[in-house]
């Protein structure tokens, strides 16, 4: 499923299987989860993707042809971070997520909305056996970047999650497992979403317009809505952190300094490092996370994107070729 021009639907095309170069693996895609970032790319909110591009950066695949690291038949996951230069000051200091030359899967490189794909073997992960292909797919971005977002909450005990979609439904379980208390914020009036959050261990769930019963030590924002930054700050205690977990957000309205006062901080999370992936997938292998997926055939990728656009996906949408 190919994007030729932003703000137009993906097109179903038949292409010959790609040819792997040195260090690349040829993959047979088993499942590819749909991320909100895919929607930002298709809808033109993220500028300058390679065009045409095959979106998709939460790929679970079996290796058809390996190079050095993986053998044919092994199951691997491919995340958003597809390549870095390894030499810039960010790469050399453990911050490859900030590499200026980084290339991203499904954006600068063709991704997983396809039957076959290529990936640089150094950026692939082994996938824990305890998840089937569909369940494993959302771990690769929703889980992984959600985990990086949670890391920036430090040792916060009371965690607010704004936007209870693919990332939050996984990270809520990780946070509960770590002994934190989770407060889930959904779209106002989304009783079903709030019930879902409580099922996954949230001690409280309500609308983003509601005040939680307790102050938060950290708030993680997974919805692309800048207006939630002052809302989350208002719910956050002195010394607390508001972390924006998405790659794109609408503008943040101005707010009085008093809301930031008391050593509160606001920060973003950009991309992932391979270390985040290894840590998170290890944790996901040890703690069985319940992964809620909605399955779509690959050729219905546009319908899956539309469902996400309209907030109609419970958990994560996953495409299956
Ligand atoms: Zn993503
Ligand atoms: Zn670099």
Please characterize this protein's 3D structure:
The structure is a single chain. By secondary structure, this protein is of the alpha/beta class. The chain is built from 8 helices and 15 strands. It has helices at residues 36-42, 133-136, 142-151, 166-177, 191-199, 228-235, 274-286, 301-309; strands spanning 24-33, 59-65, 75-78, 81-83, 103-104, 116-120, 125-126, 158-162, 181-186, 204-207, 216-221, 236-244, 265-268, 293-297, 316-320. Strands 1, 2, 3, 6, 7, 14 and 15 form a 7-stranded mixed sheet that branches. A 6-stranded parallel sheet has the order 10-9-8-11-12-13. A two-stranded antiparallel sheet has the order 4-5. α3 packs across α4. The protein is globular and about 55 Å long. It binds zinc ion (2 copies). The site of one zinc ion has 7 residues, from loops.
Please outline the helices and strands.
Layout: E1 24-33, H1 36-42, E2 59-65, E3 75-78, E4 81-83, E5 103-104, E6 116-120, E7 125-126, H2 133-136, H3 142-151, E8 158-162, H4 166-177, E9 181-186, H5 191-199, E10 204-207, E11 216-221, H6 228-235, E12 236-244, E13 265-268, H7 274-286, E14 293-297, H8 301-309, E15 316-320
Parallel strand pairs: 8-9, 8-11, 9-10, 11-12, 12-13, 14-15
Antiparallel strand pairs: 1-2, 1-6, 1-15, 2-3, 3-7, 4-5
Helix pairs in contact: 3-4, 3-7
The protein binds zinc ion (2 copies).
């Amino acid at each position: 499923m190919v994007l030729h021009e932003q703000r137009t639907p993906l097109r179903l095309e038949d292409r010959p299987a790609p040819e792997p170069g040195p260090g690349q693996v040829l993959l047979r895609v088993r499942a590819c989860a749909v991320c909100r970032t895919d929607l930002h790319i298709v809808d033109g909110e993220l500028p300058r993707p390679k065009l045409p591009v095959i979106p998709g950066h939460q790929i679970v695949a079996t290796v058809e042809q390996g190079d050095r690291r993986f053998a044919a038949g092994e199951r691997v996951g491919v995340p958003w971070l597809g390549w870095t230069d390894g030499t810039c000051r960010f790469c050399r200091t453990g911050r490859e997520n900030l590499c200026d030359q980084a290339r991203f899967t499904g954006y600068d490189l063709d991704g997983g909305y396809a039957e076959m794909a290529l990936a640089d073997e150094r950026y692939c992960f082994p996938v824990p056996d305890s998840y089937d292909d569909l369940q494993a797919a959302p771990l690769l971005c929703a889980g992984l970047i959600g985990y990086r977002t949670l890391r920036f909450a430090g040792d916060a005990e009371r965690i607010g999650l704004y936007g209870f979609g693919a990332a939050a439904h996984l990270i809520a379980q990780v946070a509960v497992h770590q002994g934190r208390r989770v407060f889930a914020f959904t779209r106002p009036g989304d009783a079903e979403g709030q019930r879902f959050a409580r099922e996954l261990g949230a001690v409280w769930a309500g609308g983003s317009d509601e005040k939680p019963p307790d102050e938060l030590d950290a708030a993680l924002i997974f919805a692309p809505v800048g207006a939630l930054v002052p809302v989350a700050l208002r719910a956050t205690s002195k010394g607390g952190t508001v972390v924006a977990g998405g790659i794109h957000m609408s503008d943040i309205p101005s707010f009085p300094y008093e809301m930031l006062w008391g050593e509160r901080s606001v920060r973003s999370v950009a991309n992932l490092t391979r270390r985040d992936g290894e840590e998170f997938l290890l944790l996901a292998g040890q703690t069985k996370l319940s992964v809620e997926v909605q399955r779509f055939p690959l050729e219905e990728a546009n319908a899956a994107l539309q469902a996400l656009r309209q907030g109609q996906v419970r958990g994560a949408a996953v495409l299956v070729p």
